[in-house]
Amino acid sequence: MKAGISFFLPLSLLFLSCPSPLPAATARSGFVMTVLGARGGMLDGNLSAYMVRPAGDDRAVLCDAGTATAGLVAADRAGALDDIALPPGTGLTRPGYVLTHTIRAYLISHAHLDHVAGLVVASPDDSAKPIYALPATLHDMSEHLFNWRIWPNFGDAGQAPTLGKYHYRALVPGRTEPLPGTAMTVTAWPLSHGGIESTAFLIAANGASVLYLGDTGPDTVEGGHRLDDLWRAVGPLVRAHRLKAIVIEASYDDTRPDRLLFGHMTPAWVADTLQDLARRAGGPSPLRGLTVLISHVKASLAEGPAPQEAIRRDLVRDAARDGLQDVRFVIAEQGLRLNLD
Ligand SMILES: [Zn+2]
Ligand SMILES: [Zn+2]
After folding, report:
1. DSSP assignment of 228-262
2. For residue 339, what is the enclosing H or E element?
3. All residues at 6 or more sequence positions from 334 whose CB lies less than 8 Å from its CB, including other chains
4. In this structure, is residue 189 part of a structural domain?
5. Are the beta carbons of 340 and 34 closer than 8 angstroms?
6. Is residue 3 included in any domain, yes or no?
7. Residue 75, Cα to own-chain centre: how many angstroms?
8. Which residues have CB under 8 Å from 177's CB, separation 6+?
9. Structural domain contains residue 336
10. Ligand 1 centre distance from Cα of residue 129 (Å)
11. How far apart are the CA of 200 and the centre of ligand 2, in A?
12. Which of 48, 62, 166, 170 could join 66 via S-S bond, C-beta 3.0 to 4.6 A?
């Protein structure tokens, strides 16, 4: 990775720096995750988008697509796409090649604009690929985005005529599906997000997995048990240390009152739910070595320190209080590439 992009705010012992990239040819297990968009609002060039691929394998999926092309350009400038082989003769820039060849599918957690805008505006120049989501999200995309009014219908359902570039693939909660054209599988679980359904995606390959959570509120505030259901499902993977990373949001810092969360999390709620995961996993130090990538921090136009600084400060305190010293917390930044072994 090149210098010039600030991947991490001031370090504490809990926040380790990014490991140096492994040569792709020698990596055989684990994942590479590249942050194309990190923030949860305001910055239209930097909204939720996380590219995931097995280590040593250039066939990727994009978890959410709030920002796509702008994120690829930023990641390319940061050197975070340098390990992707660019064949000669494509006539494409590296961001163009990654958009149309490396990214084989989209996994969309929900259809809020900060999770789909990059996909929509890139669609005329994108390659044909499937969009995997729960049925409610696919319905929102086909009815309210790709409907010839908001945007031409690049999907294969909804308002005629359908251009059919994107193939909607409905996932069934808890049922594992292969991701064609990749070496990965996906399993989805619903999340509760302030009155609409969001999604968690478990992506697995070679006996390892990573878990991406779209926007979610805490069970206690949302009045349900979807996070607990998720932790019960992935607990055995965590206990076996086969889950390499969790992407989870912390939109606001700990000063935000629960009644103003609007289906989002704070560092205190993240620490609280990770304690629940540890309990569900069981065994000694189940979260040891787990990377937790904090997504969706709300950007701010106010003067003063960046919101990430308050999130980091709160997480350090909350993690220490809740016995989560084993967890490797990282705040997502655009252009960050994580090697998850
Ligand atoms: Zn969002
Ligand atoms: Zn949302």
Report:
1. HHHHHHHHHHHHTT-EEEEEEE--S-TTS-GGG-S
2. strand 337-340
3. 5, 35, 36, 37, 38, 39, 46, 67, 71, 74, 75, 78
4. yes
5. no
6. no
7. 15
8. 132, 169, 171, 185, 186, 187
9. yes
10. 23
11. 13
12. 48
Alpha-carbon gap, residue 292 to 315, rounded angstroms: 11
Domain-located, residue 11? no
* Three-class secondary structure of residue 329 per DSSP: strand
Task: Provide the 3-class DSSP secondary structure of residue 188.
Answer: strand
Question: Which CATH number does the domain housing residue 278 bear?
Answer: 3.60.15.10
Domain span including residue 91: 24-340
Q: Which residues contact 82 (CB under 8 A, 6 or more apart)?
A: none
Tens digit of pLDDT at every position of the chain (341 positions): 333 333 333 333 334 333 334 444 444 579 999 999 999 988 999 999 999 999 999 999 999 999 999 999 999 999 999 999 999 999 999 999 999 999 999 999 999 999 999 999 999 999 999 999 999 999 999 999 999 999 999 999 999 999 999 999 999 999 999 999 999 999 999 999 999 999 999 999 999 999 999 999 999 999 999 999 999 999 999 999 999 999 999 999 999 999 999 999 999 999 999 999 999 999 999 999 999 999 999 999 999 999 999 999 999 999 999 999 999 999 999 999 999 99
Backbone angles phi, psi at 270, to 5 degrees: -65, -50
DSSP 8-state assignment for residue 99:
I
CA of 205 to the centre of ligand 1 (A): 27
| Ion ligand 2: protein residues whose beta carbon lies under 5 Å | 112, 215
For ligand 1, the distance from its centroid to the CA atom of residue 297, given in whole angstroms, is 9
**How many structural domains does the chain have?**
1
Name which of 10, 38, 83 is nearest 247 in CA terms: 38
In the structure, ligand 1 is a single-atom ion and the residues with CB under 5 Å from it are 114, 215
Task: Please tell me the distance between residue 206's alpha carbon and the centre of ligand 2 in angstroms.
Answer: 31
SS3 state of residue 336: coil
pLDDT at 6: 31
pLDDT in the model for residue 115: 98
